[in-house]
Design goal:
Strand content: 15-25%
Order of helices and strands: EEHEEHHEHEHEH
Largest sheet: 7 strands, mixed
Oligomer: single chain
Helix content: 25-40%
Strand order of the largest sheet: 1-3-4-2-5-6-7
Radius of gyration: 16 Å
CATH architecture: 3-Layer(aba) Sandwich
CATH superfamily: P-loop containing nucleotide triphosphate hydrolases
Number of strands: 7
Structural class: alpha/beta
CATH class: Alpha Beta
CATH topology: Rossmann fold
Number of helices: 6
Distance between the termini: 24 Å
Shape: globular
Length: 199
C-alpha cells in the first residue's frame, strides 16, 4: 500500500473520546518495550509518528493515527507494566479491554512479540482473549534483524509452540522485512470491512 498521509489524530481513555468517523481500525498491542512504535513508524515510512521510548509503560493512552484519510492505526498501551491485578481482564486493563471488546470498526489486532525472547504469559492471554471473542488478529515478532537466520527460525518455532501453534510474522523495523505480509493482511481486512458497509 502506498502511504500518502499519516497524522496523529487524538488520544483517548474512553469511548466518548474515540473518533466517530466510522473508518476501519487496526490496533497494535504488545508488552511494553517490544518495539510497537518502531513497527508502526516503519510500516508507514514515517519517522517519529508513534513515539518510541526507552522507558517501558510510557504510553498510557489509546492513540489514534489517521492513515491516507481512510483508516486508523491505533496504538494501545503496552501491557506488563500497568499496576493491575492478575486476572486476564485486569492484566490488560479496563480501558483497553473496553476498546477491544466494543469497537465495531476494529478489523484487525496486531499482537507484537520480541523475536529474541519467548512470548510471555501475557502474550498468550492476549491471544486467547482475542480468540475467545472472535477478534481477527495476527502475531508479529519484531527485531528479527538482531538474530541470525538459524536463530530466528528456531525462536519462531519455539514461540509458535508457546502460543498454541499460531503462526508468527517475523519483522524488522530496520529492513522492513515482513512488511508486505502485514500490509496484505491489513488491506484484506479493510476491504472486507468496506464490503460489509456497502452491503
Amino acid at each position: 500500500m502506498k502511504i500518502t498521509s499519516a497524522t496523529f489524530e487524538k488520544s483517548a481513555t474512553s469511548p466518548e473520546h474515540y473518533p466517530r468517523d466510522g473508518r476501519p481500525e487496526i490496533a497494535f498491542m504488545g508488552r511494553s518495550n517490544v518495539g510497537k512504535s518502531s513497527l508502526i513508524n516503519s510500516l508507514l515510512g514515517v519517522r517519529g509518528l508513534a513515539r518510541t521510548s526507552n522507558t517501558p509503560g510510557r504510553t498510557q493512552l489509546i492513540n489514534f493515527f489517521l492513515i491516507n484519510d481512510a483508516f486508523h492505526f491505533v496504538d494501545l498501551p503496552g501491557y506488563g507494566y500497568a499496576r493491575v491485578p492478575r486476572d486476564v481482564k485486569k492484566h490488560w486493563g479496563p480501558m483497553v479491554e473496553k476498546y477491544l471488546a466494543t469497537r465495531s470498526g476494529l478489523v484487525l489486532s496486531i499482537v507484537i512479540t520480541d523475536s529474541r525472547h519467548e512470548p510471555t504469559e501475557l502474550d498468550l492471554l492476549m491471544k486467547e482473549w482475542l480468540e475467545a471473542r472472535g477478534k481477527p488478529f495476527i502475531i508479529v515478532a519484531t527485531k528479527a534483524d538482531k538474530l541470525s537466520s538459524n536463530q530466528l527460525r528456531a525462536n519462531l518455532s519455539r514461540a509458535s509452540a508457546v502460543l498454541g501453534g499460531s503462526e508468527l510474522v517475523a519483522y524488522s523495523a530496520v529492513t522492513r522485512s515482513g512488511a508486505a505480509r502485514i500490509w496484505k493482511e491489513i488491506t484484506s481486512r479493510i476491504a472486507d470491512f468496506g464490503s460489509r458497509i456497502a452491503d
